[in-house]
Design a protein that fits this description.
alpha+beta; four-stranded mixed sheet
Length: 196
């Protein structure tokens, strides 16, 4: 594991670094090859004291991103929670793609999970500029490379991330689409069209 730790609005002490490295070392056993893991610890001013610290882990893989974000009353608690969350997501990721690979091996298209890992950089995050909008503030901008994927893979990636929507480049049309989770627990797809 190649762990990169950053902090935002809090001090990153040696004790926190050592604790995070030890707690996230469990991820080493999940992959054969070294995987870049990015941990950001940040502090927000909230009324709930038990949710002030946020630990966010991002692991960029060839077939998507594994990401977890958890809150706690201290950096240590937040790291504990996010470590458990990401471990479960890795298991789901491996199960999904190992099942898919077993099915596709008959056609000669199977790949080992270790071969799917990519040494790509994490999404760029810009927290520096806050823009005031009419109904609130735009406080974060994220940029990331967008690979083409099928609607099915995009829905699976959305579930892995724990989000209720996911923006992706549709492999069939090469257009930017959005897949989202509906209130009836099914999925929806947004396909932008030019306005007349």
């Amino acid at each position: 594991m190649e762990l990169t730790i950053t902090a935002n609005n809090t001090t990153l002490t040696d004790a926190i670094k050592t604790y995070a490295e030890k707690r996230l070392s469990i991820l080493d056993r999940r992959f054969r090859d070294p995987v870049p893991v990015y941990l950001q610890i940040r502090k927000e001013q909230t009324q709930k004291e038990d949710e002030r610290f946020i630990a966010e882990v991002t692991i960029r893989l060839n077939r998507g991103v594994i990401r977890g974000e958890m809150r706690g009353d201290s950096p240590y608690t937040a790291v504990d929670h996010v470590s458990d969350t990401v471990t479960r997501q890795i298991s789901r990721y491996k199960n999904r793609y190992s099942d898919k690979n077993r099915r596709s091996t008959e056609g000669g298209l199977g790949m080992a999970i270790a071969e799917q890992l990519a040494q790509e950089s994490v999404s760029e995050v810009d927290d520096s500029g806050i823009t005031t909008l009419e109904h609130g503030q735009l406080v974060r901008t994220k940029r990331h490379a967008m690979a083409s994927e099928t609607v099915e893979d995009a829905a699976a990636q959305m579930e892995l991330l724990g989000h209720n929507f996911y923006v992706f480049r549709n492999k069939e049309t090469d257009d930017i689409n959005v897949v989202y989770r509906r209130h009836d627990e099914h999925y929806g797809l947004i396909v932008p069209e030019d306005a007349d």
